[in-house]
Amino acid sequence: MTAQPCLRAITVRQPWAELITYARKTVENRSWTCTWRGLLAIHAGKTPEADAAEICRYFGLRKPSALTYGAIIAVARLVDVHDNCSGDCSYWAEPEAQFHWVLADTVDLRQPMNCSGKQRLWTPEADTATAVLDQLPARLHAAPGIDASTDPSPLEVIHA
Ligand SMILES: [Zn+2]
């Protein structure tokens, strides 16, 4: 039996993935929630937003053609998810988004790891996860991940 790597991932369209790294965007606005708390790989999807050029200009990012696609480019810690929050929690929070995923300690990968993205929360392949985790500072390894869906006791803690 192989242990599941203590890493989950979400696929984020560019340039939003770049904003999580370059601009330290600390809230990911989503219409769905998850029970995972711990290391979260930020995978830049293959397809950019339709208005990517406009968003890049607005935030002073590199051009869309200069961004990385189809790769894990960073790792953050998913520390909280706000449900039906007013949006006052962060500059990056959209009041109309049902869930605010709160990211902390974001680390850019020196070597982005090419891989396919997926819908919803996903678990990277073991070799990809190892290559990602090897690039992280020790302080992130010290933060254990919890998937409350596989263990009922932390769920009570998280929702207490
Ligand atoms: Zn919020």
Automatic annotation (TrEMBL):
InterPro entries: PUA-like_sf. SUPFAM superfamilies: PUA domain-like. This is ASCH domain-containing protein. It comes from Stackebrandtia nassauensis (strain DSM 44728 / CIP 108903 / NRRL B-16338 / NBRC 102104 / LLR-40K-21).
